[in-house]
Write a structure and sequence with these properties.
heterodimer, A: mainly alpha, three-stranded mixed sheet, 11 helices, elongated, B: mainly alpha, about 60% helix, about 10% strand
């Protein structure tokens, strides 16, 4: 059993630590795609590592192994220490429970979405009469195209140009299937809770991506920044309201400043370098884990 | 109609519907055209409005020699009911829905309001 099996776990921690840098400097489109891919790769590799750590111990447990007809000495000259196996087993249990919860959560939400599509023939924009200021992209399903859900209050808060920004922004979410990026990174995070920071980061990058698309479509970054600002100010709590989410709010102003100051070429190169190296490490550890996993299966079959 | 044209027609419908909702009173096709910047052909606006009317998402009534259009409250209330059901049945809708903007802290709101005042003051003449 080689120590390389521990690398994916370290890698997951490194990715979690590197997330803020990617968010800061990466072009949103590239950043979102690479972050989702690397997160999935690292999550799978780390889970494979857990399986190896637990599996090697199981093979070492002679009574069980002989009962099942496996060779007790199969794990070779570098056995996995008992505490590590126990910890790995505990982690695997936690991952399993969290993964199941996430899967049930997202499929329940998807079911509810389908129920919302009572009248599909009305067109791309669905206006919801509500004093709340809402604007959402409702992703396409197999049976119906994507929809833009906006409350009448939100439409009144914006002028004609700003409404074009809003529609272009939501359209970008739909056109580029941003819901899939979110679902995939959600799966990665439930497979490996260390990757939780990647979820918020991908959300932010997808918003930035849609902002950039909207700016391209209306032909003005300043107009796009203005629309965001106007909408954010309109939805913000009036004095006297108790709940003020400070974390989520940080993002709108970051999106506005990103629009007012386009990213530098230096930032792009830095982000590319960072992401390529993370991608290489991720790929290498995934390959190593896959190799060990294959080895483990060979041992289980008794011909290792 | 090919795919691109159909998509553009759909997008135009969204813009027109949004403009009708934003307006405080029923709008004539001419007023809709003006609200959308005046670059569209009058007949395009007319076609879009009658398509929206066929779908039942806008109402119209006689105004002079033509019609004035307003959004259908009935449709929007139906959508609101369904949407509320979606939200009421759990707080996990964020799994599939992503808002356009989130709420601001007090400090940020002050900064962004100032920015907005500047913007509105000197207009948006930069590309």
């Amino acid at each position: 059993m080689r120590t390389v099996v521990y690398i994916p776990l370290v890698c997951a921690l490194a990715l979690a630590a590197g997330v803020p840098a990617i968010v800061r400097s990466a072009p949103p489109r590239l950043g979102a795609a690479v972050l989702v891919t690397v997160a999935l790769g690292v999550a799978l590799a780390a889970d494979a590592a857990l399986v190896i750590l637990v599996g090697a111990r199981l093979i070492d447990a002679a009574p069980l192994a002989s009962l099942l007809g496996w060779r007790a000495e199969a794990s070779g000259p570098h056995p996995v220490p008992l505490p590590v196996s126990v910890a790995a087993a505990a982690c695997a249990m936690v991952v399993l429970v969290l993964g199941l919860a996430e899967w049930r959560r997202s499929s329940a939400a998807a079911r509810r979405l389908r129920a919302l599509r009572g009248h599909d023939e009305t067109g791309e924009l669905v206006v919801v009469r509500s004093s709340a200021l809402l604007a959402f992209a409702l992703p396409a399903t197999r049976t119906s195209p994507g929809r833009i859900l906006v409350s009448d209050g939100m439409l009144r808060a914006l002028d004609a140009d700003e409404r074009r920004v809003l529609l272009a922004h939501e359209r970008s979410h739909l056109r580029h299937r941003h819901d899939r990026y979110r679902r995939l990174v959600g799966i990665a995070a439930s497979l490996n809770p260390l990757l939780r920071p990647a979820v918020g980061a991908v959300d932010f990058l997808l918003e930035r991506w849609a902002d950039e698309d909207a700016a391209g479509e209306v032909g003005s970054r300043r107009l796009t920044a203005r629309a965001l600002t106007r909408a954010a100010v309109a939805v913000s709590p009036r004095p006297g309201r108790l709940w003020q989410p400070s974390f989520a709010s940080e993002r709108v102003s970051r999106r506005v400043s990103a629009l007012l100051a386009p990213p530098s070429a230096h930032g792009r190169r830095l982000a590319l370098l960072l992401m390529v190296s993370l991608g290489l490490i991720g790929a290498a550890t995934a390959a190593a884990a896959a190799h060990d996993l294959a080895h483990l299966f060979d041992l289980l079959r008794g011909d290792g | 109609m090919n795919d691109r044209l159909r998509r553009e027609a759909g997008e135009l419908e969204s813009e027109v519907l949004a403009a009708l909702w934003a307006a405080a009173r029923p709008l004539t096709p001419g007023e809709v055209r003006e609200e959308l910047g005046g670059s569209l052909a009058y007949t395009t606006v007319m076609t879009t409005l009658s398509r929206l009317h066929d779908k039942g998402v806008v109402d119209r009534r006689r105004s002079g020699r033509g019609y004035a259009y307003s959004p259908s409250v009935r449709e929007a209330d139906l959508a609101a009911r369904q949407f509320r059901m979606l939200l009421d049945r759990g707080h996990d809708s964020d799994a599939v829905l992503q808002g356009f903007v989130s709420e601001l802290s007090a400090d940020e709101e002050r900064v962004l309001r100032a920015l907005l005042d500047d913007e509105t003051g000197d207009g948006d003449h930069q590309g």
